[in-house]
């Protein structure tokens, strides 16, 4: 069934429900910011392109300003658009905006448990625990760096096997990124040919795609109805169950081999914490939270890094002059005989700027992840009631013309000062900001730097078409923007 057919059926179901169901009294939303007028049940969905939700939301902010109310079906949400208002909310009122908003595609599986989709005291404790455990295992420190360097060499040797012939890098980049999380969480990496590992990657990739598809958008908008409508979106829940089953097997193996005095990884640390808290009747540490949290880490950490790298390589194929400058800096600072390491970064401002610009431009989580306000608050003259959904349009900070000179263009100068030194920009919000800021930020930055420099140290990119023909506009169609598959060659240097 095509999309318009589905939409007609949905409309019919909505209107029938509206006519048959008794009117429900909703919370008083009368002091919310103004926005487009909603219609019952469909909300504002007739005023947007479901396939281009983000573009539509950005467009609406031209009419209604940086803060407006938008009805996702029958749920009112407040949309924040532009760096200034995002900073005021996520950073200046970090605590108040730290709730997690509805994420219907995952809710059926997560039930609000785990880090990414959790909220309140359980989320706080799980997040604190994960951060301190990651620190112990060297996230942002040397041991993790060694692991990433090692994985970069596996990646380079896989790339060598292509012998300069055209190929699509998607699969290899996903393996490399995911193996870093595997090391942290399971204490081991997998071969790129390992059947179970490949199944795991397929499940993550498939859910990321489904959640960003039109079907995913419809589920996001009309969760109660879409749960009963057949379609590919229903696979999201099934895939989560399979991911959880994989994690469950790992948990069992870890339980059998656990040495409380010598934890090997995140799961061992979680098992020890469960033991320590076993007499606490209100503890949040149990098998269920462990499983949900572990799946969260996989999902959040695998596709994000590899998609960013894929975009990055495509942008460099479009801009060979930038690739050339990167080669020059890599050759000057690292040379051909040793692996890139994090110490190099401070002496490679151009590479650092290019990586930030790739993240700004590619914008792989353009809509952020929905937040809620944790209590009734006054914000910019409006009353936002507790639990109100907030959509932080992170892409609007990263494309804010008051913060970036030429936001529509890919230009590493956005992150360089007049002396060619790396310059931070607070509007860089690829990892969001405030209390919910991405938990894997430092790990992701380390992976991006080491993987990209290792690739360019060993290869020159060669496009199959003229660079000017390569389209690098991000496909920000949904919650995550998935780069289109593409082929190119890597010529050994
Ligand atoms: C380029 C790579 C990455 C990008 C662009 C990215 C981006 C994001 C964004 C936008 C959020 C939502 C923050 C919010 O709610 O405001 C997030 C959350 C999160 N990310 Fe990442 N991420 C990346 C890599 C990673 C990695 C490698 C990990 C693995 C450890 C990770 C773990 C998480 C977790 C656990 C959360 C949920 C935090 C919470 O709700 O408290 N991310 N990320």
From TrEMBL:
A cellular component term, taken from the record's GO annotations: endoplasmic reticulum membrane
InterPro entries registered for this protein in UniProt: Cyt_P450, Cyt_P450_CS, Cyt_P450_CYP2_fam, Cyt_P450_E_grp-I, Cyt_P450_sf, Cytochrome_P450_fam2
Localization (cell): Endoplasmic reticulum membrane; Microsome membrane
Keyword set includes Oxidoreductase: yes
GO biological process terms, semicolon-separated: epoxygenase P450 pathway; xenobiotic metabolic process
Cofactor(s) annotated in UniProt: heme
Reaction equation(s) it catalyzes: an organic molecule + reduced [NADPH--hemoprotein reductase] + O2 = an alcohol + oxidized [NADPH--hemoprotein reductase] + H2O + H(+)
Positions with a binding annotation for heme: 438
Entry's transmembrane regions: none
UniProt keyword annotations, A-Z: Endoplasmic reticulum, Heme, Iron, Membrane, Metal-binding, Microsome, Monooxygenase, Oxidoreductase
Gene Ontology terms for molecular function: arachidonate epoxygenase activity; heme binding; iron ion binding; oxidoreductase activity, acting on paired donors, with incorporation or reduction of molecular oxygen, reduced flavin or flavoprotein as one donor, and incorporation of one atom of oxygen; oxygen binding
Heme recorded as keyword: yes
Role played: Cytochromes P450 are a group of heme-thiolate monooxygenases. In liver microsomes, this enzyme is involved in an NADPH-dependent electron transport pathway. It oxidizes a variety of structurally unrelated compounds, including steroids, fatty acids, and xenobiotics.
Family membership noted in the UniProt record: Belongs to the cytochrome P450 family.
Protein's name according to its UniProt entry: Cytochrome P450 2F3-like
Species for this entry: Chelydra serpentina
């Amino acid at each position: 069934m095509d999309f318009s057919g589905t939409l007609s059926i949905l409309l019919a179901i909505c209107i029938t429900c509206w006519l048959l169901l008794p009117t429900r009294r909703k919370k008083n939303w009368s002091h919310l910011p103004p926005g487009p007028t909603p219609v019952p049940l469909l909300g504002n969905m007739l005023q947007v392109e479901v396939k281009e939700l983000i573009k539509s939301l950005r467009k609406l902010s031209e009419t209604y300003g940086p803060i407006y109310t938008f009805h996702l079906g029958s749920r009112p949400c407040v949309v924040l658009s532009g760096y200034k208002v995002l900073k005021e909310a996520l950073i200046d009122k970090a605590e108040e905006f730290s709730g997690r908003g509805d994420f219907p595609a995952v809710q059926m599986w997560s039930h609000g448990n785990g880090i990414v989709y959790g909220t309140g005291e359980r989320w706080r404790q799980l997040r604190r625990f994960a951060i301190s455990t990651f620190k112990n295992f060297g996230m942002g420190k040397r041991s993790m760096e060694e692991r990433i360097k090692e994985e970069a060499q596996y990646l380079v040797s896989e790339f060598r096997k292509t012998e300069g012939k055209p190929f699509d890098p998607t699969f290899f980049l996903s393996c490399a990124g995911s193996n870093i999380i595997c090391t942290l969480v399971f204490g081991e990496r997998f071969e790129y040919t390992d059947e179970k590992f490949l199944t795991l990657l397929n499940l993550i990739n498939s859910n990321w795609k489904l959640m960003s598809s039109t079907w995913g958008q419809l589920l996001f908008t009309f969760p109660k109805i879409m749960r009963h409508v057949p379609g590919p979106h229903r696979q999201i829940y099934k895939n989560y169950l399979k991911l959880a089953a994989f994690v469950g097997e790992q948990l069992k193996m870890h339980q059998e081999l656990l040495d409380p005095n010598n934890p090997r990884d995140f799961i061992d640390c979680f098992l020890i914490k469960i033991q320590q808290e076993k007499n606490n009747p209100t503890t949040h540490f149990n098998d269920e939270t462990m499983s949900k949290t572990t799946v969260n880490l996989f999902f959040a950490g695998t596709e994000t890094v590899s998609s960013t790298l894929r975009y990055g390589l495509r942008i460099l194929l479009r801009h060979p002059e930038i690739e050339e400058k990167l080669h020059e800096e890599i050759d000057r600072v690292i040379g051909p005989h040793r692996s890139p390491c994090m110490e190099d970064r401070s002496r490679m401002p151009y590479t650092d700027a290019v990586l930030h610009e790739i993240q700004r431009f590619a914008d792989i989580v353009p809509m952020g992840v929905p937040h809620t306000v944790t209590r009734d608050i006054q914000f910019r003259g409006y009353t936002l009631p507790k639990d109100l959904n907030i959509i932080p349009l992170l892409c609007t900070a990263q494309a804010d013309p008051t913060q970036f000179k030429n936001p529509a263009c890919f230009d590493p100068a956005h992150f360089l000062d007049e002396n060619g030194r790396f310059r931070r920009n607070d509007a860089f919000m690829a990892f969001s900001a405030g209390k919910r800021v991405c938990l894997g930020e430092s790990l992701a930055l380390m992976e991006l730097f080491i993987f990209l420099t290792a690739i360019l140290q060993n290869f020159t990119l060669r496009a199959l078409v003229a660079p000017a023909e390569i389209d690098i506009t991000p496909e920000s169609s949904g919650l995550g923007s998935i780069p289109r598959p593409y082929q190119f060659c890597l010529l050994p240097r």
